[in-house]
Every structure is written in structure tokens, then in C-alpha cells.
Amino acid sequence: MSMSDTIADLLTRIRNAQTSSKVDVSIPYSKMKFSICNVLKDEGYIESSEIGGDTKKNIKVRLKYYEGKPVIEEIKRISRPGLRIFKQANQIPIVNNGLGICIVSTSHGVMTDKQAREKNCGGEIICFVS
Predict the structure, then answer these.
(1) Could you give the 3-state DSSP secondary structure of residue 9?
(2) Distance, CA of 95 to CA of 80 (rounded, Å)
(3) 88-116 pLDDT per residue, tens
């Protein structure tokens, strides 16, 4: 059986691993998922993301905790296969009054809402992280 929403699977694996206080989690590789993990790493929500595996590529995500609590309080999928959400640069939402990030897939790659506004390029709203 094939999975229809692999990005939702990525977010759910991260959410579930942090709920059970895991140190790291392994996720099947795709370029989009690796780009999302790199944005999370650059913004300080996870410690690292590495590609590994011999026959099947996996992304090994090392989760980040602060004083025993997960750094990611909420991670929520917005655009999904059944309902794609696209916004222009000036319409990209601000998450938690700027305390969270919105990950956007643009024609210039996957980036945060702040970077998308600076480059003045809109795109598909992937998820909210706070």
C-alpha cells in the first residue's frame, strides 16, 4: 500500500518521537522531506538531519530538547494532497506573532515564511511549527 501524504508522515513521526522522548527518529528519504528537515535544523527546532542507509535511503533526525521538554511544541500540516493551500508573499501567515515558523515550498526552494517574504515569493504552505 502506498502512502498518499508522505510529509504528514514525516511530521507525525517527529511528533510521536518527541512525545515518547526519543533521541532520534528514522524517516524514509525524499528530497522534499530532507529540505523540510534542513529548514527545521536551520531554525533550531531539531539538532541534525543526516541521510543514511545502504539499500534504502533514510533521514535520521536527531530531536532537540530543552530542560527535558521538546523544543517543538506544535507541528501542524496545512496544505495536503486533497486541499493544496497556496499564498502570495504578502499573504503568507505569521505563526504565533512571529514566535513560530511557517514552512513554505516556493519556486526558489523550501524556506520559512520570513525568508519567503524577504525574497517576495509565495508558494505552497506546508506546515506551521511553534
Answers:
(1) helix
(2) 18
(3) 999 999 999 999 999 999 999 999 999 99
What the block records as the C-alpha cell of 109 is 526552494
How far is the C-alpha of 91 from the C-alpha of 25, rounded, in Å? 33
Q: Is 66 left (phi over 0), alpha (psi -120 to 50) or beta?
A: beta
- 101-106/86-87 β-pairing: unpaired
Instruction: Give the pLDDT band (50/70/90) at residue 1.
Output: very low
Per the rule left: phi > 0, alpha: psi between -120 and 50, beta: everything else, 98 is left
- Residue 54: per-residue pLDDT: 86
C-alpha cell at 96: 504565533
Residue 129 in contact with residue 103, Cβ under 8 Å?
A: yes
The residue written with cell numbers 511553534 in the block is: 130
Residue 74, CB half-sphere, CA atoms under 13 Å: how many? 12
User: Cell for 56?
Assistant: 534504502
